[in-house]
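Predict the assembly for these two chains.
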Amino acid sequence: MDLLLNAFLGFVNKFLGQAPLLLGTVVFIGYLLLGRKSYEALAGFIKTFVGFKILQVGTGGLVATFKPIIESLTAKYGIQALVIDPYFGQTSATEFLDTMGSLAFVGYVMMIAFAFNILLVAFRKFTKIRTLFITGHIMYQQSAVLLWALYWVIEGTTGKPVSAPLVVVTGLLMGTYWSVMSNLIIEATQEVTDGAGFTIGHQQMFGAWVAYKLGGLLGDKEHDVNHVETPGFLSILNDNVVANSLIMTLFVGVIMVILGEETFTYNRANYFFATYIWETCAFFAVYITILLTGVRMFVAELTASFQGISDKLLKGAVPAVDCAVTFGFSPQAPTFGFIFGFFGQLVAIFTLIAIQSPVLIIAGFICLFFDNGTLAVFANKAGGRRAAAIIPFIAGLIQVFGSALVLTFLVGPPEVIGWMGMFDWATLFAGTTILSKYLGILVPIVLIPLLLIIPQLQYKRHAETYFTTMRDQ
Amino acid sequence: MLKVLAACGNGMGSSLIIKMKIEKVLKDMGLDCEVHHASVGQAKSDARNFDLVLVSHMLVKEFSNSGKAKIIGLINLLSEQEIRDKVEAALKS
């Protein structure tokens, strides 16, 4: 009996407890269920596993590059500098959870959340949820960050791996958020895209909804931002390698200059201080590229498997996809959002410095461009260029202040180098995390039914046309 | 075999969606194909190794130097009809 039990526990720890093996197996089974050939399923397993390992090279590299700079800053001025960028948030979460032996739980959170989303759509007659979240890289990222944040504030002092109830509650809250918020933004997305038949499944659905609702009050939708010429040099930011290098050099470079040459140990025979700064900052782009390569590989497999499963189970569900899909419908708005969001974040960062905040925020490219870009697309649709300028500016302030606030509750473990920064994470999830610090697991539990009221209210407003957005009905 | 590349800003979300749509459309059209996805930064340097590159129409101008590859700009990345029409037009020319 003991032998059997030990074999089972061994399997749980050494197989189901290992994130890449677990996710690879999910893909393998998913492909078999979809009727793919067994060798294709095996290829899917391998690409998931290898992709995950590549991703870990990237996250490890990011921490190793950034850590010495943060530590010097803390040693010299007593402040912590952290980056608001989803991949820095994800890196903090997975590197930290890994040290707690809890990385595989991220996979479970994601699967519980996805299953709950499917369930809510299947019972749409009662739940009024029409949307299925299929943005794989976001699903993994959010599951990781939410689990990290809730674990740290609720169970962080125990020093034990994440408890099973917390994994389940985190999964259910995650699934509720995906379902409710992507459902909330359907009508606005249909407006923005002239009825393209999808909704947003990203990090700022709530933010985009607010932007759309407020946009109309701030400006005139006839003054569309797409009639405005934006400066041509900004087009170099379309290349994410260039963008990451430039933004990081701008922010981290300034910090390195302030810290001074003597803080850093490098081979002075080979480098000027300036070229050393440039190389260090360019390494952020190096590791982000590695990280993205890994995520791209395993998420492609995972999404194919997930989407196949959901296509079989749910025919008419509206797919919730990456926010950048809306950009093509409003090509100038993302640039507008980027510029004004950047000013907003700068103002907020200088405010943090002026009030001597213990947490200093470093702006990240993805948050600047994709988050504020999306808010600008929605604001522009409702309120034209004025709205597309004012809302990203205010969002920039919120992203920095909200993230700085929640990070004061999360700093401590040496793996922590940043937070998501995206609008919903600087508001909804920052709030959830902070409340959970004081009230415990009760907060995420209570939030689940509360969030589920939102689609009911939406349904009441236009019951006759509510389900017509779905493809098959 | 047709070699196709789907690209978007980070090469994560949108390009993966176009990739899955392209695979479906080209299969329906009876074409044998291999579809990859990448970020615009990587796709730019890689484009000449492909027959078709599909991106959001606002990113088409990034691909000024892509050899024989045909660049297709999409407005609605999720529209199978648009992908089909534009791929057909590109293959004819």
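Chain B touches chain A through 30 residues (CB under 8 Å). Helices of chain B lie at 13-28, 40-46, 80-92.
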